[in-house]
Amino acid sequence: MSVFTSARTASRSDATSLAASARSGSDLGLLVLRWAVGLTMAAHGSQKLFGWFGGGGLDGTEAFFASSGYTAAQTMAVVAALTEVLCGLGLAVGLLTPLAGAGVVGVMLNAIAVKWGSGFFGPNGIEFELLLLVAAVSLTLAGPGRFAADRLLPGLRTHRLSHGLAAVALGAAAAGIVLVTLRS
């Protein structure tokens, strides 16, 4: 074995090690982001559904949707609350990540539409909802990473960008349909 062959082999080994290290760093970053977005969404949904964490429960959420111009306020309260809880938990554990991301995209687009006239910053600004929307889109496109329950499901074991794109489109379409048909 020549010195050049040995150096080339060592170089490949170093590159493989570096790639594995970078991949696990990305996977850890995706896990942290999934936890942050997922648990935030689940807690926010729990405010709507159960009145936890200072929330108004279903009655308060229904009143909010009615005052925001939604014609089916009670249905919207239940759907929004369940979507936030279930999709938030789905993101947190990385289960059915594309669908969980689609749910968060749909809910956040509706929230942004309701708050749109209040500007970006301030008590009723859209910055928080926009941040959650962008994080959900990013997770949906990037995939959940290695540390996710999706790794146990054969169809989702390897993330495909097409799944992420379809999920983002699904969430946006659902939000559009809700805004056009249920909000005056």
Automatic annotation (TrEMBL):
The chain crosses the membrane at residues 130-149, 161-182. InterPro entries: DoxX, DoxX-like_oxidoreductase. GO terms for cellular component: plasma membrane. Keywords: Cell membrane, Membrane, Transmembrane, Transmembrane helix. The keyword Protein biosynthesis does not apply. It is found in: Cell membrane. It is a multi-pass membrane protein. The keyword Transmembrane applies. Belongs to the DoxX family. This is DoxX family protein. The lineage of its organism: Bacteria, Bacillati, Actinomycetota, Actinomycetes, Kitasatosporales.
